[in-house]
Design goal:
Arc Repressor Mutant, subunit A; 13 helices; disordered N terminus; AraC-like DNA-binding protein; DNA-binding transcription factor activity
Amino acid sequence: MTTPDKLGNITTAGFRFFGFRNIPDQDIEQNLGDFFRIFKTFEPIDIVVEKEKYHLRANQMIFVGPGRFIDMSNLRVGRGYLLCFTAAFYERSVEDTATIHSPVFFGERPVLYHDSCFGEQVFNQQITIRLGRARMQGDYIFDLVAHHCVESLLLDVYHEVSAGDQMPQPKHTTDIGLVNHFSMLIHKHCREYTAVQFYADQLHVTTRKLTDICLSMTGKTAKSMILSVLVQQAVRYIKHTNLSISQISYEMGFNDESNFRNFVKKQTGHIPRALRES
């Protein structure tokens, strides 16, 4: 049976598949931040997403959306796979769009899912070996097979998350796509830019339209979405690092520590020290 250590990496324009121990240095450094990422484990391993540690057991998956920073430096000591894809690669139907632009990848925290169907042997048969064979049959066949492999990993967790959250079906997939592109941009840039105008310019819409779409899709204004991500990142630094509050305020883009303290208090109801001690 082919193992993660022996499998050659697979890389196309919108799809990547690596065994943990074979992830290229440049991908660890660049963090694949514009990709949707699925980590599949065959033994326990810790993964750090946005400064917060997640302990994955054997046969678990974690789903991480674009724009979120992952510390992948310790993956090479474990056994498992990293599967990455872009929206352009995966979206071929309305259902595809709804699946990836959902809380599976865009929830407040990454989704952990225990995958009882895909043990190591079954995973290698249905995913690893199929991808290896399809790679030898040309780009068209490979894209079809790779899409089906991603779909098989996503559907169960999507339906479970959707049922648990009682998530409404989006009426306009273009709108939900824009909102999640906005979310990706926020995660990448919120420490430098908190003005709605910056993101509207990147998305080629007016600030009014962006806010209206955000309200329709999420119930939040564009500005509140920006501040929500910013405070989430700040709280993760406060709770999960040993940095001083002054250092964290600088990391989060605040020039004055008192402004940072006031921001955290306004958004959470607690001062930074109380959050650290909780």
